[in-house]
Write a structure and sequence with these properties.
The chain is built from nine helices and six strands; from the N terminus they run H-H-H-E-H-H-E-H-H-E-H-E-E-H-E. It has 238 residues and is of the alpha/beta class. Strands 1-6-5-2 form a four-stranded parallel β-sheet, sandwiched between helices. Helix 5 (106-114) crosses helix 7. It is globular and about 50 Å long.
């Protein structure tokens, strides 16, 4: 049974809020209400500027349609979009959400990602499934928090469409080929689709191996066009 707070404790909590207003996670300045990041810091986050790859969404030279990788490699997903490169203050927010328990950051990050989406009619939002061990350690799944926020902002249903078939080692810092081998056959769909388009949400796209495997599993299960959404995309030198 949940313990109800007394009127006195609620008044005291309100007083503390007045004496110590919430501050921006990045700059420490005051923020409105319970927002974790101020508008100025959100506006200053690293973002893709100019042309982006029509498939993976990273920044490319003007006049081009595809990045080098997407020009030579096919993808299981129709397109991926991210707010910007995995760098600077954007990286700081994602790291805090993933590893430091700062769950509230899923709200502003999810809102920024939702602005990038152009969902098709009947689309479903899902998240890349978590590793069970890391889920137990953290107590939450960052990609799922983001996906729920994005679904609410877009007015779309959220569904757990994917499951992880086996545990996988941390992928940070591993070579692209090694990551791709580790991801092969890692995901399976929980149910069959009937051509519904799906938006798959992750926190960061690194080599794209996770997004590729998630889209492959959903496609094989009968779902329609697969789009991928993430807060950031790591690129060479980023």
């Amino acid at each position: 049974m949940w313990r109800r707070s007394s009127p006195l404790s609620r008044i005291a909590s309100a007083g503390v809020g007045l004496l110590f207003p919430a501050s921006c996670f990045l700059c420490g300045g005051e923020v409105a209400g319970l927002e974790p990041v101020c508008p100025d810091c959100l506006a200053d986050l690293p973002r893709w500027e100019g042309a982006v790859c029509a498939v993976c969404g990273i920044g490319i030279e003007e006049g081009l349609d595809l990045c080098r990788s997407c020009a030579v490699e096919g993808r299981s997903y129709a397109g991926a979009r991210s707010v910007g490169p995995y760098d600077g203050s954007l990286r700081r927010l994602v790291v805090a959400l993933k590893y430091e328990g700062e769950r509230a950051l899923a709200r502003p990050l999810g809102d920024l990602v939702a602005e990038l989406a152009e969902p098709k009619e009947g689309a479903i939002v899902t998240a890349v499934p978590p590793d069970p061990k890391r889920l137990r350690e953290r107590g939450y799944h960052p990609a799922e928090l983001l996906a729920h926020r994005i679904a609410r902002r877009l007015g779309l249903p959220y569904r757990d469409l994917l499951r992880k078939r086996r545990a996988s080692p941390p992928q940070v810092g591993r070579p692209r080929e090694e990551r791709q081998r580790a991801m092969q056959g890692l995901f399976a769909a929980r149910l069959s689709g009937r051509g519904e388009p799906v938006l798959v949400v992750d926190d960061v796209i690194t080599t794209g191996a996770t997004a590729e495997e998630a889209a492959r599993a959903l496609g094989e299960a009968g779902f329609g066009e697969i789009g991928v959404l993430a807060c950031a995309h790591a690129v060479k030198g980023g």
